[in-house]
Amino acid sequence: xxxxxxxxxxxxxxxxxxxxxxxxxxxxxxxxxxxxxxxxxxxxxxxxxxxxxxxxxxxxxxxxxxxxxxxxxxxxxxxxxxxxxxxxxxxxxxxxxxxxxxxxxxxxxxxxxxxxxxxxxxxxxxxxxxxxxxxxxxxxxxxxxxxxxxxxxxxxxxxxxxxxxxxxxxxxxxxxxxxxxxxxxxxxxxxxxxxxxxxxxxxxxxxxxxxxxxxxxxxxxxxxxxxxxxxxxxxxxxxxxxxxxxxxxxxxxxxxxxxxxxxxxxxxxxxxxxxxxxxxxxxxxxxx
Length: 288
Fold this sequence. Notes:
Elements (H helix, E strand, L loop, with lengths): L12 E6 L5 H10 L4 E6 L11 H15 L4 E6 L2 H6 L1 H7 L5 E2 L2 H11 L4 E6 L1 H6 L1 H9 L4 E6 L3 H6 L6 H11 L9 E5 L7 H8 L4 E3 L2 H8 L13 E5 L4 H10 L8 E2 L2 H13 L7
Parallel strand pairs: 1-2, 1-3, 2-9, 3-4, 5-6, 5-7, 7-8, 9-10
Helix pairs in contact: 2-4, 2-13, 5-7, 5-11, 9-10
């Protein structure tokens, strides 16, 4: 896909993409581990959640986001959205073969396989992620003997996006999704959506201390190291883009980034993408 690269002294960047605020959990950890690198973050806050949308629409949104971020000099993409990782990765890699793309499903599966003792794992994810079977496939690729259960938790993302991460509503919602599995011998739960760590305490309380609750952040952070080959010229920079600006994003973002969050830049991602496609496909005018 044709693109025009924007030059910047702070690049190359590590680009992190998510459907909303959930990917800030990944961004925060990556910045802690790689403080000398510059980051771009794009949250598609106007179209969140992705988990209830069709694979076709998720792939379309992901391609638009990747196009926008690829206009900057990039070290790599980090797809922080589990739904995008589950259904759109082949399309993204085909569109951007020259840019390493890291996803979160494989690292999350690795965390679960390393944590389980009795080979009984429960994956919590969006409807799209669970329906794709991506975690089941990734876990079985590592250990085919593991029993993998999956449950879609569509109300978790709206709660996280609203900053409602504790209290009776959260407790009741967590209990509703997990109750059918509490009598099983599950010893490991995978948070298969980057929004879900915001609800980690409520989930851990519901299942008890003997059940390990894991996500993809730690192995993803380690995997990223092999892709960091350039030296940053100048002070590392963080640039954040959203498709719909809100006080909620700032409130949650400042919590994750220790209060160090400037106002994000709001963009009309869809309009920019299709205007670029129009210019590429428009036949040149003939001079008279």
